[in-house]
Amino acid sequence: MNNEYAISVNNVGKTYRSRDGQHNTVLKGLDFHVKPGQFVSIVGQSGSGKTTLLKTISGLQEPTEGEILVKGRPIRDGIEDIAMVFQSPVLLPWRNNIDNVLLPLEFRGTRTDESRRYAQELLEMVGLGGKAQHYSYELSGGMQQRVAICRALVSHPELLLMDEPFGALDAMTRDSMNFEIQRIWQTTGCSVLFVTHSISEAVWLGDRVVVVGGRPGRIVADIAIDLPRPRGKEHRFSAAFSDYTTEIESHIGVVTGIS
Ligand SMILES: Nc1ncnc2c1ncn2[C@@H]1O[C@H](COP(=O)(O)OP(=O)(O)OP(=O)(O)O)[C@@H](O)[C@H]1O
Q1: What ipTM does this complex have?
Q2: How far apart are CA 76 and CA 200, in angstroms?
Q3: Euclidean distance between the first and final Cα of the chain, in Å?
Q4: Which residues pair with 82 in a beta bridge?
Q5: What are the structural domains, with CATH classification, of the chain?
Q6: Which of 25, 45, 50, 56 to mutate to test the pocket of ligand 1 (most atoms within 8 A of CB)?
Q7: Atom of ligand 1 minimally distant from the CA of 195
Q8: pLDDT per residue over 80-123, tens digit each?
Q9: Which atom of ligand 1 is nearest to the CA of 164?
């Protein structure tokens, strides 16, 4: 079995069946592999199946065709080292921030004194060390999303799946969260799949940008982003950056007929 990849998506398809028997094939023949520690951005038109892809990789739903391997093992083996971050942080309002971070470990029955220390460390890493005992309603949207990221990281995931995590944030907060997530990723070394509607965010963060498009959705482009790390603001204004965004825009347009 191939353990070389953090994730292998092999010929994956997904068809939803509605109650009245209608079939909607959302993804078909998807094939791609993610190396350990890679940051892969995923872009595509609304409705192209990006969220479906992430949910299928996470094991939240099963593929109708093909298979997904995480570190060479089928997802149905109950792989625990995957964590997901959604657009909305969904923190429990009756628990303080550190107890929200610790929630996944409580669900698994693996919470220890050491995990509390680690949760505090994570909050400090995202600049919220002083807010551990506060509640989510006392935080801004960006701060809440940082707590949600800590909650995803507390179980030391090797694979972090992020579905438009910064989509609800204002442009300035989103910018600073991009720096934050780059730093977190470089510190933890986990592999990341990052869905976004922002092509520039996808390019700035990604080692690769995968474009999903068509009906049913398939991979229409997989572009390696050869920009130095760590990336700073200046990279957003480079000629190479602009070439990448133009190329990706053209792939999204080709599939939809928009040019
Ligand atoms: N649970 C479900 N049952 C039936 N159809 C679904 C389900 N989830 C998604 N779909 C359909 O699958 C298609 C793809 O949806 P999905 O949310 O994966 O796209 P997306 O690319 O993430 O969209 P967006 O960018 O707007 O978030 C849509 O037509 C949607 O209506």
Answers
A1: 0.97
A2: 34
A3: 42
A4: 159
A5: 1-81+159-259 (3.40.50.300), 89-156 (no CATH)
A6: 50
A7: 22
A8: 688 999 888 999 999 999 999 999 999 888 888 899 999 999 99
A9: 27
